[in-house]
Design goal:
The protein has 14 helices and no strands. By secondary structure, it is mostly helical.
């Protein structure tokens, strides 16, 4: 064997070794890792999510479909209305049901409740999360306990009280009881959020010359905006959907809210149930809430998770 043959053999073996050892590195350098194969477990997760999604949306879908049927076709079981009809929506706003006024009343009650609940909840949450005083945990527990009473349990006492005060058929007869359930929700959410905010920010602001109130208004409150925003949406939805108190305290159709107005829809005859009109009114009441949640879903998620991530 000559020297040239030895050199060729060494060259060939080195090239082969480089190819073998570089093969894994080459695939890594290209940056195309193999995609993990989906197993039956991953498909089962997607299937479970699809079932939950369908279960949650099926009632609303059927309500929407039923609202688009004609009165004569209201008991059809087809997945789509045939033909499409806006007859029920026209009847809802024909003036006899006063549904437009009821929507305005719901907006007034829910909006006023949300504003007062936020004002009281922000200050209460700040005191509980930032100030040191005795029985702080007991007070927070009592506040939360008040929201656990079912609405029906306070109807009779409130009815007697509001009758003596002359509040029957007034907005405050709906707003004040709604506040008793909305304020604990606001205090609990905002307290949890504010506890996660660092104390150093307020101390630094006061060192720079801010008073306690200025540090709260200029530093803490802007940082708590996601929590305040989320609490406002949850409080508004809770007040918008309230039914028991509004049904018990209001007899005047001009003051009743949308949820009560839907329950009092009447058909053409005494024993006829206006299912189509009720479905249409239900869609009208639900759609604004759905749109609001879809638009602000990122802010809602930020507010619900910010306290845990900071």
């Amino acid at each position: 064997m000559t020297i040239s043959d030895l050199r060729n053999a060494a060259t060939n073996s080195g090239a082969t070794g480089a190819t073998d050892s570089g093969a894994p590195g080459a695939s890594t350098a290209v940056g195309r890792p193999e995609k993990p194969k989906r197993t039956w477990r991953s498909y089962s997760v997607y299937l479970g999510l699809a079932l939950i999604f369908a279960y949650c949306l099926a009632p609303f879908y059927w309500m929407l479909v039923s609202s688009l049927r004609r009165t004569a076709d209201i008991f059809d079981n087809t997945l789509l209305p045939a033909p499409f009809s806006l007859e029920n929506y026209a009847k809802v706003f024909d003036g006899s049901t006063m549904f437009g006024q009821a929507l305005l009343n719901s907006l007034v009650v829910a909006g006023t409740t949300t504003v007062f609940a936020l004002l009281l909840g922000v200050f209460a949450a700040y005191a509980i999360s930032r100030l040191n005083f005795r029985f702080k945990s007991v007070i927070l527990g009592v506040i939360i306990a008040t929201s656990m009473f079912p609405g029906i349990s306070v109807v009779v006492p409130l009815l007697r009280l509001f009758t003596d005060l002359g509040w029957i058929n007034t907005y405050q007869a709906m707003i004040v009881p709604s506040l008793s359930f909305a304020i604990p929700l606001a205090v609990w959410n905002l307290t949890t959020f504010m506890k996660a905010l660092p104390f150093d920010l307020e101390e630094a602001a006061m060192i720079d010359g801010c008073t306690k109130w200025q540090a709260f208004r200029r530093v803490l409150l802007p940082l708590a905006a996601p929590g305040v925003f989320t609490t406002a949406i949850l409080t508004f939805i809770h007040s918008w959907n309230e039914f028991i108190i509004a049904l018990s305290m209001i007899n005047d159709p001009k003051i009743q809210t949308a949820t009560v107005a839907i329950s009092k829809f009447t058909g053409a005859t005494e024993f006829q149930a206006p299912f189509g009109e009720q479905m249409a009114a239900g869609v009208i009441v639900t759609v604004p809430l759905v749109i609001m949640v879809l638009i602000f879903q990122r802010r809602i998620v930020e507010g619900l998770t910010a306290g845990a991530s900071k």
